[in-house]
């Protein structure tokens, strides 16, 4: 007898390959979140003004130090600041470093408070001047007798001055103070740390593939 034909088995359909989802293109990088500022110092005094002999708790900061922070902040406004001071290991003191960190926070907190107060005062001063200018302008309309030549000349100059200075206080000065406010606010929230100068130099040499030999 002829053998019965076996039914052909259909090949299983190929399984769909699972591709990993692509990472979002707008993911934040480390540089967006944290902006590191390396500042090499010889002693703790380099952070403070040479003309202020006060103790660390109340001493003014060095202009060179502040200018460097201004420059770094101008280069990039996004992200948070991490300020790392490097100095010789033999000169480090945990007690002094704690005082310096507290002084930095207190200094920028006080500056931020002053700028916020000044910005608020300038805003209200500008609004007041605009109101005075508008009031004088309306008085010329309500009282035509004020349009005599000498009086009109004086009032025109006064109107021009109060309106111009009012707009300046509201927009130009307020905008400049807003930038200062952002600067001091970022430095108030910044992370401050002290590192051994030798360790930082050694790590930098390793990352660049430079071998150092001692005789």
Residue ranges: pLDDT <50 for 5 or more in a row? 1-7, 16-33, 210-215
Termini Cα gap: 98 Å
Strand content: 5-15%
Extended strand count: 3
Radius of gyration: 33 Å
> How many structural units, i.e. domains?
1
- Listing every helix as H and every strand as E from the N terminus to the C terminus, the arrangement reads HEHEHHEH
Largest sheet: 3 strands, parallel
Integer average pLDDT? 79
Across the major sheet, the strand order is: 1-2-3
Overall body shape: elongated
What is the SS-derived class?
A: mainly alpha
Question: How many helices in DSSP terms?
Answer: 5
Question: What level of helicity do the residues show?
Answer: 40-55%
Structural account:
- The chain is mainly α and 215 residues long.
- The protein has one domain (33-207).
- Helices cover 55% and strands 10% of the residues.
- The chain contains five helices and three strands; from the N terminus they run αβαβααβα.
- It has helices spanning 30-33, 63-75, 94-142, 149-189, 197-207; strands spanning 34-40, 80-87, 191-196.
- It has a three-stranded parallel sheet with strand order 1-2-3.
- β1 (34-40), α2 (63-75) and β2 form a beta-alpha-beta unit.
- The longest helix has 49 residues, at 94-142.
- The radius of gyration is 33 Å and the shape is elongated.
- Mean pLDDT is 79; it is low at 1-7, 16-33 and 210-215.
